[in-house]
From TrEMBL:
Protein name (record): Helix-turn-helix protein
GO molecular function terms attached to this record: DNA binding
Record-linked PROSITE patterns: HTH_CROC1 (PS50943)
Gene3D superfamilies, per database record: lambda repressor-like DNA-binding domains
InterPro entries registered for this protein in UniProt: Cro/C1-type_HTH (IPR001387), Lambda_DNA-bd_dom_sf (IPR010982)
UniProt organism field: Kutzneria buriramensis
Domain HTH cro/C1-type residue range list: 24-67, 76-133
Amino acid sequence: MANTELPGFDPARLRQLLGARSPAAVAEAIEVSRVTIHRYLAGERTPTVQVLARLADELDTEPLGLFDPDAVGQGLLALRITAGLTQAAVADKAGPDLTVDRYQRLESGRTRQIREADVAQLAVVFGATEEEVRRAHQWSCDHSDSG
């Protein structure tokens, strides 16, 4: 998964939240092309976290409101989407001890042990409690495809 891709984006939720508004009007308001909005609606593309924040604001919802809750779950991905950050931005804000690769492995549940220093830094980055970070990481591990 590229840092800018957000699994679980739900075109049907976007369509529902658009209501009677035209995709062109929303595209203009959030400064993307009409083609981009139509690709979101067709499920051909997902917004970057930066565009997601503007889109959610324009549609008067939280960023997670544009996602299938079953696909996103309650793991580190959900915290990252809520914070509006890429994986690279999370690693950068967390400091030099948390690399992008390590964060990706934590988020995917492939790294089953999370260091206390990472918990503390991620809590600050996500604006969450340390317990919320621990629970989110455990959820990521419990729902990991890697085992």
